[in-house]
Amino acid sequence: MTSKFPVAARSLTRRQAITRIAAGAATVAVPAWAQTEGRIVLGQSAPMTGPNAQLGMEVRRGAQIYFNALNAAGGINGRLIELRTLDDGYDPQRCKANTQTLLNDDVFALFGYVGTPTSLAALPLAQERRIPFFAPVTGAPALRDNKARNVFHLRASYFDETALIVKQLTSVGLSRVAVFYQNDSYGLAGLEGVQRALKAKGLEPVATGTVERNTTDVSSAVKTIVAAKPDAIVQVGAYRSCAAFITSARQAGYGGTFYNVSFVGTQALADELGRKGHGVVVSQVMPFPFSTTTAISREYLQAVQRAGGNAQPNYSSIEGYIAAKVLAEGLRKAPKLTPDGLIAGLESVNTSFGGFSVSFSNAKHVGSTFVELSMLTEDGKVRR
Asked: Exposed, middle or buried: residue 253 (CB in 10 Å: 0-12, 13-18, 19+)?
């Protein structure tokens, strides 16, 4: 199966390529696809345009790389996998409408939704239809506290991420911590995680500031937080708003450390900041995608290289790749190739995927609690 995205000329800059891919991605939704015996159609709603587009595009790209290779090898019992992606621009209402469209088209499962507010908008529809809702890119507890049998999480929670961040901060003597967060369910989940972790150490945030979803108006938050003179600022937002905050805070004279949770989109944040990103820390819930130190990273890097075009390794892409790989394992283990069969198959997955352990059961639908820290470098790269 070939990708639905156009391949940009090699002479394009990274940002030009992203823009062109986004324009192509918006056309993915045009055909009305029906479920057929020869295909397993997965539905995805994710930002393909707008200020969070790079994250959505890379998650999809990583999944598509895996599915393309799987289809070339014959698919699952001879059935090829189609990934149908609808652009929601990181807007909950658009995501809800997309999900209804996908369900009306009888997709086999919902896969790789990107974001907390969007996933929360889609979840009631998925539960009503009892269709698998697999690997949403969010660590929010509101999606995990629900014990619905059809929902499976691949990544660690925001509480896991913020606990590690606070542990790291306090271990080096940084106790004055501020929080900059997106004013919605995603940001509030991250804020709660930081507050919980600090409270366990007898601390609380010295200041907080917010930004509205899909905006970069950070002036008020910068003024409030910088005035509190924190040692470090934990950010729970999208890459453009977080980059805008870092830039403005530095201009205002702030010299402390910035920490971000994984959903920020590490490569997207690095691209936005350039040299200004040096020293910014990001927690990660996926294996390091830039070296061959683990078997899954080696496999992923080889797959990216074979894919060619604009494909480049990054954390968002490897998350999509691993999610696709785990879903395929669930399909192989399914007693029948039906949505209910997939749920049963996923509940029997308990294995290491090249060093990344995933364990589900009928009582456990969060597959991993893996978290580690990474840091942006002056040349726009990422190191552990």
From this structure: exposed
Question: Per CATH, the architecture of 158-284 is what?
Answer: 3-Layer(aba) Sandwich (3.40)
- φ/ψ (deg, to 5) at 233: -125, 120
H or E element, residue 351: strand 350-353
pLDDT tens-digit series, residues 137-185: 999 999 997 678 999 999 999 999 999 999 999 999 999 999 999 999 9
Q: Which fold has domain 14-155+292-359?
A: Rossmann fold (3.40.50)
The sign of the dihedral angle between the CA atoms of 209, 212, 213, 219 is negative
Closest CA to 117 of 55, 28, 179, 183: 183
**158-284 and 14-155+292-359 share a CATH fold:** yes
For 61-80, write each residue's pLDDT tens digit: 999 999 999 999 999 999 99
Interatomic CA distance for residues 119 and 102, integer angstroms: 14
Q: What is the pTM assigned to this prediction? A: 0.90
Rounded CA separation 80/74 (Å):
7
DSSP 8-state code for residue 52: T
Domain spans, the chain: 14-155+292-359, 158-284
Q: How far is CA 131 from CA 111, 127, 149, 275, in A?
A: 10, 7, 9, 44
